[in-house]
Amino acid sequence: MKAKPAAAPRPSRARARARSTSIAAFVVLAALVPTTASASGTQEVEAELPYVCALPSGQLPATVRVAAEFPARAEVGEAFTPSGVTTTVELPEEAVADLAGRGAAEVRAATRLDVGVAQNAATARAAWRGGAEPVALPESGPLTLVTRGDVPSVAGRGDGDLTFSAGSLAIDLTLAAADGTAPGTATADSGSGSESGSGSNSGSGSLTVDCTLAEDAPGQGLLATVPVGAGTGAPSGSASPTGPAGTSGAPDDGQPDGGGGRQPERQSERSPKVLENTPGTAPDRDDVPPCRYDEQHPPTDVSLNAYVTGYANVKKLKGAAYLPPSCVLIEQGVPVPGPPDPDYLIFDTVSYANFHYQERRQTPPFEATFLSFDFAPVKATMVLEQTDTMRIDSRMKMSMTDFSTTTDTYVRAPLVLHVLDLEVNGTPLDVGSECRTETSLVSEDPDPANFPGDHLVLYGRGELLIGQPATGYLLLSGGVLAGEATIPAFTGCGTDGEDLDRLLTASVSGPGNLIKQVQGQTCAIAAPVFPSPTNEGQCTEDLQPYEIPVAEH
Predict the structure, then answer these.
(1) What is the pLDDT of residues 67-80, one digit of tens each?
(2) What are phi and psi of 404, to 5 degrees?
(3) Single pTM value for the model
C-alpha cells in the first residue's frame, strides 16, 4: 500500500505528523474491521492439544487442534487480531454412540474456547467462538467438528512476550434426526447422576459438552507467543505462559509483576487488553434501535418489520466486520402464478423493503477499531445508506407429489458505505461529510437483463415439509442470506486539500467480499402474534419485532 504524494506546499512538522497518521488510518478505514498487524510479518500456528470431555457416557478423551495466524511481533499498545482461527475437535467413537443414542443423525457445532492472555505477571481472558455447518454422524470412527469464527483483538500494555494459551472448551451441539427434526427424548439421560457428563442440557435437541485441557498438554496449552515492544523473545511458543489459561481476567492481585514489585493498581494498568469484536448472544432490546411504524411511515395490511444483522468480509484486509442489528420495514407483495411446470405449482412474489433509522434509510452508525501504519489506534464510525428501495424476489415451488415446497429468495439492495467520523489516538480528525463509495456495493446478478445497475445481491433458500417447521430462509420467518460483493472506488474523502480517494480505493476496493446476513422473524402488523404459553411470539406489545437475531460467521 502506497501513500499519495502531497501536492500542496510542505506543511509544518506537527501538521505533517497529523496528516501521515490520517492517511495511514484511511488505508484501513473502509474495512470496518480490526486489522492484523502485518507490517512485521506473521506467524502461522497449529497446536494439537489433548482434552477430556464430559459426555453422557462419562469422561472421554478428545483431540483439539487450533490453527491461527499471529503477528511476528507487536508494539506496546498495538491492538491486533489473530486471523484465520479454526478449531477442530475430534470426539471419540463413544461420543458418536452417545449422540446416536439420543436419536441424532447429524449435529451442528458451536465452540467457545477460553484463551488465557498473559504478559509478565498480568493475565486476561478472551473467548474464541466458532461455528460450523451441520455434519452427519459417521457410521464408525470418531466425529470431527471444524468451527471457524472471528476472535477479539488484543494489545500488550508493556514490553515483554504476550502469550496465548488454550483453556476450557465448551461445545454446543444442536442435534437433528434423519428427517431434520429434533430427536426424541426417549434416550436422553436425566442429567442428575455423576455420569451425566453434560455441563448444560437445554432439551433433547441440544447438548453442551464441557471439555478441560488434559494435565499432560504440551506447554500447558500454549498456542503462540508474540514479542511486544523492546523485548527480545522469539515467537511461536518459545516462552511458557506466566499463568494457566483459565486464570481470571484480572491480574494476580497482590503479586509483583516481575518488573520490580509494582503495586496491584499499577499492575492492572499493564494487563493485556482484550477488545471483544464479536457478539455471541442477541443484544438486549435497550441496545438496539426501535423498529416500529410511525406517522411518517404508517403500516398497511401487508406491512412487516424485522431486525437484520451479520458479518461482511473485506478480502484485501483478511477480516470481517460486525454489522449490528438494524431495523427493516417490509411491504410484502401478493403471490402471482409463475411459469408453468408439470411437476410444480409455482408462485412469484415481489416485496419491497427499507432500512429505518431515525427517519432515514440507513443502518445505525457502527464503530470499528483498527490500526494505522505507525500502530496508532484508530476508531471509525460508519453507516450503510440506501440509494433506492430494496427489492425482494421470492419464487415458491410446490411439488405436486409430496406437496413439499422450496422458496428461492433474492434481495437486491443498493447500498453505499458512508464514513462519518474518525479518531486517531483519541483525537478526532475532520474527515469531511461526503466520504463514501462512488456507487453501491456491487454483486453479480443472476438476471442482469431484468435487473441492471449497481446493487448488492443476497440469496437464501427455504424448505418446508408438510407437518414440519420451515428450514433455511423465508421472508416471514427469516434466516440466513449470503452473497458476494465488490467494494467500489471511494469519493469525497478528505478535507483541506487532502484527497484520500485513490489511496482508500487502492487499499480496500475490489471483488470477492463475502457477506452473511441473518434476518429475524418478522412481525406482521395487521395480524400480530404475541408471546403466550402456546406461541413463541413474533411481535412485542408495541408492534416491534420480538426476535433480535444473532449474527453468524
Answers:
(1) 999 999 898 888 88
(2) -75, 155
(3) 0.54
